[in-house]
Amino acid sequence: MAKGKLITIEAGDGSGKATQTQALYDRLRAEGYDAVKVEYPDYQSDSSALVRMYLGGAFGGKAENVSAYGASAFFAVDRYASYLLKWKDAYENGAVILADRYTTSNMAHQAVKLTDAAEREKFLGWLQDFEFGRLGLPVPDAVVFLDMPPEVSDRLIAARAAGEPARQKDIHEKDSAYLRRCHAAYSAVADRYGWHRVPCSQDGRVRSVEAIHEDVYNAVRDILQTEVPVF
């Protein structure tokens, strides 16, 4: 049996990744696809311990306190454990895997720590070799970038915090300047690797969940019938 498909949903914090991943999962299941949904970090697994420590500020209150390579290794180990334990068999037996974040997140969130263009390029090459080569994680067949302008996502993050007072912001969410740099990095790698860009706002206002979902669905529909990876 042919291997399945891996579709990744990417965006900055507060951009509706979980909502859109769930909507796509529900639609594909309703259409008869064997779909599996995964989320990163995998907070329910012990494999995310170092990620939780990093995002919780145990290594320092700024993202830059941990190098791009160190933080990427934390996230990669979490993904590797999830792949082996939760979805490798399904993927190898033809399932469609929908990932809310993946290796592609580190291409923005960690790459921005490197201001020198040559160093950033070196990091991107290392990251792909480490996860897709050394660890053997599958290469995505499609990446959908939910393009939410930082000024809009700032409002959504604030609204979420007000609605969930017990939830603590992680070190990424606390640093709005960092999130703006991440959005610029997302835009750059989306253009470089031909990711599917879905606009999530219009005239400064968030588009409806339904309208965004239709764009996401249309972006991946043809991918399910092709064999072209994005890297």
The largest β sheet comes out as: 5 strands, parallel
What is the overall pLDDT average?
91
What is the CATH class designation? Answer: Alpha Beta
Global geometry: globular
What percentage of residues falls in helices of 4 or more residues? Answer: 40-55%
CATH fold assignment? Rossmann fold
Q: In angstroms, what separates the terminal alpha carbons?
A: 23 Å
Largest sheet strand order? 2-3-1-4-5
Poorly predicted ranges: none
Order of helix and strand elements from N to C terminus: EHEHHEHHEHHEEEH
- Counting DSSP H or I runs of 4 or more residues, the number of helices is 8
SS-based class: alpha/beta
What is the number of domains? 1
Strand content: 5-15%
**Name given to the CATH homologous superfamily:** P-loop containing nucleotide triphosphate hydrolases
In the CATH classification, which architecture applies? Answer: 3-Layer(aba) Sandwich
Strand tally? 7
Structure report:
The protein is of the alpha/beta class. The chain is 50% helix and 13% strand. The strands form two sheets. A five-stranded parallel sheet has the order 2-3-1-4-5, with helices on both faces. A two-stranded antiparallel sheet has the order 6-7. A hairpin with a 2-residue loop joins strand 6 and strand 7.
Give a quick summary of the entry.
This protein has 231 residues and is of the alpha/beta class.
Please supply descriptive tags for the structure shown above:
231 residues, globular, alpha/beta, two-stranded antiparallel ribbon, 5-stranded parallel sheet, Rossmann fold
